[in-house]
Amino acid sequence: MTQIDFFTNVAHPLRLAAKIAVKAWRSHGRVRVLTPDAETTNALDRLLWTNDPLSFVPHCRMDSKVALDTPIWIDERVEHNGPAAVLVNLHPEPPPFFGRFERLAELVADDDMQMAAGRIRYRFYRERGYELRQHDWSQRD
Predict the structure, then answer these.
(1) Does the model's pTM come out above 0.85?
(2) Architecture of domain 3-136
(3) Cα 46 to chain center, whole Å?
(4) What radius of gyration do the chain's Cα atoms show?
(5) I want to staple 108 with a disulfide (CB 3.0 to 4.6 A). Which of 22, 27, 118, 139 is the partner?
């Protein structure tokens, strides 16, 4: 069963998504980051290229010609066709394919709209019997 971690009260969701994606890539291999839209995908792409100038984070979109050879996929497409061990969700709804992953990181920003969507996702997983772990990020970001 997928292990689900909720990171709540996140002031900078893209920074945390990048951090989790890099850590998951190093620990588990393949990672998918689901974003809510193309603008967020582009912003995360830029962040992964510029976050640490001394390290390379191999990532691409799902439809890239090098996707099968790239360990981190970032995309807003609500589908997943390929290998991955960890899913990082920035989308407001539960991904329909989340059960294919060993781990799911749900990121909930610290604004009212995101928190309301996060509560709905939390209930969705809990009602299906998933054990949920919560990490309050309000003092960390």
Answers:
(1) yes
(2) 3-Layer(aba) Sandwich (3.40)
(3) 16
(4) 14
(5) 118
Distance in angstroms (rounded) separating the CA atoms of residues 96 and 69: 24
How confident is the model over 41-56, as pLDDT tens digits? 999 999 998 877 667 8
Residue 114 CB neighbours (<10 A) = 19
CB 34 within 8 A of CB 96: no
Predicted local confidence at residue 50, as pLDDT: 85
Q: Where are the domains of the chain?
A: 3-136
| DSSP labels, 63-108 | TSTTGGG-SEEEE--S---S--SEEEE-SSS--TTGGGSSEEEEEE
Q: Of 141, 128, 104, whose CA–CA distance to 6 is shortest?
A: 104
Environment class of residue 46 by beta-carbon count within 10 Å: exposed (0-12), middle (13-18) or buried (19+)? exposed
What percent of the chain stands above pLDDT 70? Answer: 98
